[in-house]
Amino acid sequence: MTAPDRVSHVEIENRERLERTPAHEVALDCLAAGIDAAHPRRIVGDALSLSGTELWVTDVGGETTAYDLSGFERVVVAGGGNAAGHLAGALSDLLGDRIAGGAVVTDDPTDAGPIEVLPGDHPYPSERGVESTRRVLEVAERAGPEDLVIAPITGGGSALLVAPAGALTVADLQELTEKLLESGAAIDEINAVRKRCSAVKGGGLAAAAAPARVLGVVMSDVVGDDPGTIASGPVSPDEISDDEALGVLDRYGIEAPAVREHLIEKRGDPGGAGADVERTDMCLIASSRTALDAARSAAGKRGYEPLVLSSRVRGEASEAGRFHAAIAEESRESGDPVPTPAVFLSAGETTVTVAGEAGIGGPNGEFALAAAIDLAGREGVVVGSVDTDGIDGATDAAGAIVDGETVTDRERAREALERNDVQTLLAEAGAVIRTGPTGTNVNDLRVVVVEPN
Q1: Domain range holding 429?
Q2: pLDDT digits (tens, 9 = 90+) for 133-150
């Protein structure tokens, strides 16, 4: 739960309608605390500080690096992602007139002082995203050898930072993205292909800024926090080969003729535009662990025994939902792995393999509905799951919160899962969580509250 003396940056819009029981209140406390803890303005306040002319940056591991801003002619900002606007705004508040200007692309705009906050689209790239990305690249290209380019990089940047490579078009990338997202491919596989089809990903932004000094200020939304996967690595060297990218298309049977032709034509070329690692630093300032730690603290304050299952949950969303339901049942009936009252927490990024014509839903909705089917008729368990950016898949919801009363017709619920059309059923049950855009993105967050028998 957020401490009372700290301003909350994120609210669950329909919370009052969702607080059916004390267990629901606990679950919502955990979810809200986790999302809020990862908001850029809170993160920047904790991870970055200014002492005289020195900018001190502390990563999630506690390592601190100092940058003497007096040693640079200019400080400019160039980046993108779901949370890039809010991150740029926090940087502007911290550094003030030390920032000479800049530009970021986001789908959640906010004021960022001298930094242009430009529009893009997520989860599918768009023409306006291309135009905005050109402006970001222009800012980077104008940086000189004595300048510092601060690059706010957050989840969602793979769709928002769009610069098609070679003869590829935005339409080609839109088709590719849709097929990849519906294939069940993991995010690292998806971004492996997207990097090889882009002039900004795979180190392209850092290459544009060379020979300036580049500082990537990164918020992770991927399992394992690989900087080359977060937003497809705009300031990280591309270590993916064209053959590896082609392998992803083959593995999931993805028909994308223009992309395949592009990858075959450039086979053997060095990976990506590359980043000058000698002049580029990466600082990870937030990840799913940030949200998990805050959620765990919220559960403890409510008197529950919290247990983090994993920050790396992946695979099919519905299977993950059933697994979490099984853990809840075991805890309630046997006291393992921890006795009740207990709260189980997890993070990561599950996927959805779309079968046929896709309905309305997302991974967090499918996770929650699958858990609700197995928990139907059972008491004492509440399950909540959200995407921390406030947008589950291509829906207008963050996720869902369910219990043993959510599903009254198991056959209908199973059919909804099979059609990948869970949103209608969850909305009818009053289970949909709405936050609107949250200003952050550190992957999915899940909570399971288990009451005593």
Answers
A1: 15-38+288-450
A2: 999 999 999 999 999 999
Highest mean pLDDT among 177-191, 192-206, 239-253, 285-299: 285-299
The answer as to whether 10 is a domain residue is: no
Domain co-membership, 307 together with 344: yes
Neighbours of 52 (CB within 10 A): 8
pLDDT digits (tens, 9 = 90+) for 331-377: 999 999 999 999 999 999 999 999 867 689 999 999 999 999 999 99
| pTM greater than 0.85 (yes/no) | yes
**Boundary residue ending a domain (255, 286, 317):** 286
Q: Among 238, 262, 286, which residue terminates a domain?
A: 286
Asked if residue 276 has pLDDT above 90, the reply is no
Nearest to 197 by CA among 265, 118, 282: 265
Contacts of 364 (CB under 8 A, 6+ apart): 317, 385, 386, 387, 392, 393, 398, 399, 400, 444, 446
Burial zone of 94 (CB within 10 Å; 0-12 exposed, 13-18 middle, 19+ buried): middle
Determine the angle formed by the axes of helices 127-141 and 170-183, rounding to 10 degrees. Answer: 110
Q: Are the beta carbons of 220 and 286 closer than 8 angstroms? A: yes
CATH code of 134's domain: 3.40.50.10180
Report pLDDT digits (tens) over 36-57: 999 999 999 999 999 999 999 9
Distance CA 419, CA 145 (A): 54
Q: What is the DSSP string of 136-170?
A: HHHHHHT--TT-EEEEEEETTHHHHS--B-TT--H
Strands 148-154 and 213-219: parallel
